[in-house]
Write a structure and sequence with these properties.
binds 2-oxoglutaric acid; Jelly Rolls; alpha+beta; 8 helices; 304 residues; eight-stranded antiparallel sheet
Length: 304
């Protein structure tokens, strides 16, 4: 028996995602939280985004508000150790095959009371490949509940079109479902306890609301691709040479024969005005589907 049942694999193919409860051991979960707490210590006093931290718009140096830790795997080796652990890697192999290429990691903090929304998007719009055996693993550091801005996934949308994530011809990393004529009301929230993981297909439409609750919703994401999926665009399409490209394989064997599939592709070009994070790129959207946090200290009227 593999890491996933035939039913789980069929559900992933049909709906575009699965959620596996209680995948991390208590030791892995507490280590992850501890490593994150150590990283966040470094955000004190920051005045603007840097290579590691993406800050909430309401951040102040005396009241640090980090929205995302960018590329946490470059900050602490524990993140690569975790993605290589059988608890995470085996389910991924069951869906993508024996060779897996690591693309990137990111950690969305979505803190209690103000953690920012993520507008509707498809990861595929940011990084198309030669085939779509590409997915994101989400690792829940906290319980994800209905009121702390859970990730919302639109079942089956990974088998549909790639929506236009451009405004006035420029990539903005999100789209307006109203304008696209897409009904997102059937989207389902990931509701699961801390230590669970989600696996969602790269073409699946997803987003998440502002965290209005009193509980943090910290969520680590790993972007992973089948070894024969070739990156077409985005920062990860650039590699120095053969060795550097293959150093990203976390299991399996290198191939120089990309598998080409009949997949819809729209390049994320011209690049977003600020491509430093999804949150910054999505500022280019004409209309937001989710509310933004308004600092009560600044007397700006809340949108109705
Ligand atoms: O944090 C979330 O709810 C969604 C994250 C996501 O889709 C992303 O960061 O690309």
């Amino acid at each position: 028996m593999g890491a996933l049942t035939a039913d789980q694999i069929a559900t992933y193919r049909e709906r575009g995602y699965i959620v596996l409860p209680h995948v991390l051991s208590p030791t892995q979960l507490s280590r992850l939280r501890q490593v994150l707490a150590e990283i966040l210590e470094r955000a004190r006093g920051l005045t603007s985004n840097d290579a590691v931290f993406d800050l909430e718009d309401s951040h102040r140096p005396d009241r640090p508000r980090v929205r995302r830790v960018k590329t946490p795997h470059k900050v602490d080796p524990f993140f690569m150790e975790l993605v290589r652990s059988p608890a995470i890697l085996e389910p991924v192999k069951a869906l993508l095959g024996p060779s897996i290429r690591f693309q990137n990691s990111k950690l969305n903090l979505k803190s209690a009371g103000f953690g920012a929304a993520v507008e509707w998007h498809q990861d595929w719009a940011y990084y198309p490949y030669s085939n779509d055996d590409v997915l994101a693993v989400g690792v829940l550091l906290d319980d994800m509940t209905l009121d702390n801005g859970p990730m919302l996934l639109l079942p089956g949308s990974h088998r549909g079109p790639v929506y236009d994530h451009h405004v006035a011809g420029r990539f903005v990393g999100g789209f307006d479902p109203l304008k696209a004529g897409l009904d997102v009301s059937p989207a389902e929230p990931v509701i699961a306890p801390a230590g669970s993981i989600s696996l969602h297909h790269v073409r699946l439409v997803h987003g998440s609301d502002l965290n209005r609750s009193g509980a943090d919703r910290r969520f680590l994401l790993y972007e992973l691709a089948a070894g024969d999926a070739w990156p077409l665009a985005g920062g990860y399409a650039h590699y120095a040479d053969w060795d550097e490209f293959n150093s990203r394989l976390i299991c399996g064997t290198p191939t120089n024969m990309p598998r080409l599939a009949d997949v819809p592709v729209r390049m994320p070009l011209p690049a977003a005005l600020d491509p430093s994070s999804l949150y910054q790129a999505q500022k280019g959207l004409e209309r937001r589907s989710f509310e933004s946090y308004v600092d009560p200290g600044l007397s700006i009227p809340r949108p109705s």
